[in-house]
Design goal:
Beta-Lactamase; Heat Shock Protein 90; alpha+beta; five-stranded mixed β-sheet; rod-shaped; disordered C terminus
């Protein structure tokens, strides 16, 4: 196995937060290290200038003590190629007079008291930066010195650019590392996003594969159950017709067989619907009329459930009529079952409306509601909280809505209400909308 593949597998197996923590740690260490290197380069540059100035100062002290205040002594040193980077040399008297200067025109000129105070020192050499007459910032080192019984200050002024190369390189390194870290983080963010999308895609693929397997299994079970179930139900109905020849206890047993057979028939029908629902048959029809048709097949009046409608007078749509019928039927049946589980009067509200390029179907009830822990599971096949539920009602709704290119979501408060909102695309071709 290639090293790159191994690394990718290791990274994919790591917890995402550990990966982010590692990235943050590496970034912090790199930035701190680079910044410290930059700070060290500043110190190194000044140390270099100080050492260079100290070496020149020692040479000048020796020359001054040997030759005295000879006016051309500094000029000779400036012209000496051995001492590169010198901006100027000067020796100031304690009274502020320029006794020696590499620019001989400045000799014997006097500095004001303030300038002399800031430039002169006592005791030991003091490095600093000043602005030269040319506008350049130069490094200076002032060293107290006594020449021919005259107290003064020896000033060495150096061009900083040789040592500044160290700083510039460190600054360039810092900028380069910063740019690289920004690029690194961009790549890392893209990688994490791709990693999340891959996990999500793998999860969707696994879910689709599981649903496909469940669909195939459901189809096989439905076909295998249907035939013997038909025989059992038919024979039980025959026995009931002959109920005059059986006692009351046996007759009740036959009724139970028939009722349970009908329930199993509904289960096999649901299994077949769940297994075979991908083929679309698009037709034009009136959606409010379809809702009313579905209601006629449900025991709403028998259960004394109050119905509230918010639908246009007419809303023609292009969709798969039978799939939409199944969606509405399952949702209304769920609402009826939820109301059966509570005491008191029940109410179901049905809303159908067009919202730009969408058709919104909303069905609400004041039934038992859904517990927060159940909301994430209710669309899973075979998950049910009903004693005799199949667990396929909402799973079928979810799958059919996706086949129709829409979305479904649920809002619920346990013990108070449940609202299911189906959002389907509105196909304009052949569609007529009249508000109401």
């Amino acid at each position: 196995m290639r090293p790159v593949t191994v690394i990718i597998k290791i990274i994919m197996n790591m917890k995402l937060y550990l990966l982010v923590l590692l990235l943050v740690t590496v970034t912090a260490i790199t930035l701190v290290s680079t910044y410290l290197f930059y700070r060290a380069s500043l110190s190194a540059a000044e140390s270099f200038l100080s050492a260079h100035a100290a070496a020149i100062s020692m040479t000048l002290e020796t020359s001054l003590l040997k030759y005295g205040l000879r006016q051309d002594i500094f000029k000779d040193i400036i012209l000496n190629e051995r001492w590169e980077g010198i901006a100027f040399l000067a020796f100031y008297g304690s009274e502020g007079t320029i006794l020696l200067h590499s620019n001989e025109k400045l000799i014997n000129k006097k500095l004001d008291a303030g300038e002399l105070t800031t430039r002169s020192g006592s005791g030991s050499a003091s490095p600093s930066y000043i602005t030269h007459g040319t506008g350049e910032s130069v490094f200076v080192m002032d060293t107290p010195l006594v020449v021919q019984d005259r107290k003064g200050v020896l000033r060495i002024a150096l061009h900083p650019y040789p040592s500044q190369m160290i700083v510039e390189r460190a600054r360039l390194l810092f900028l380069s590392v910063s740019v690289m870290l920004v690029a690194f983080w961009i790549i890392a963010i893209l990688f994490i996003r791709a990693f999340k999308q891959r996990i999500k895609l793998e999860s969707v693929m696994a879910q689709n594969e599981r649903l496909a397997m469940l669909g195939r299994m459901a189809s096989v079970l439905a076909h295998e159950i249907r035939n013997p179930l038909g025989v059992i139900k038919g024979f039980a109905q025959y026995l009931k017709e002959q109920s005059g020849n059986v006692n009351e206890k046996t007759g009740k047993g036959i009724d139970i067989i028939i009722d349970e057979s009908k329930r199993l028939e509904l289960l096999t029908d649901d299994l077949l619907v769940y297994a075979k629902m991908d083929e679309l048959r698009i037709d034009g029809f009136d959606l409010p009329s379809l809702v009313r048709d579905v209601l006629t097949s449900l025991p709403v009046k028998q259960k004394d459930i109050e119905m509230d409608f918010d639908m246009p007078g007419r809303l023609s749509v292009m969709s798969d009529k039978e799939k939409l019928r199944q969606i509405i039927y399952n949702l209304l049946q769920n609402s009826i079952d939820a109301i059966d589980a509570i005491e008191g009067s029940g109410k179901i509200s049905v809303s159908v409306k067009r919202d730009k390029d969408s058709i919104i179907i909303s069905i609400s009830d004041n039934g038992r509601g859904i517990a927060p822990g159940e909301l994430g599971k209710i669309f899973s096949p075979f998950y049910t909280t009903k004693a005799k539920g199949t667990g396929l009602g909402l799973a079928i709704v979810d799958k059919l809505v996706k086949v129709l290119g829409g979305t479904v979501r649920i809002e619920s408060s346990h013990g108070k209400y449940t609202t299911v909102i189906v959002d389907l695309p509105f196909i304009k071709s052949g569609a007529v909308y009249s508000g109401g």
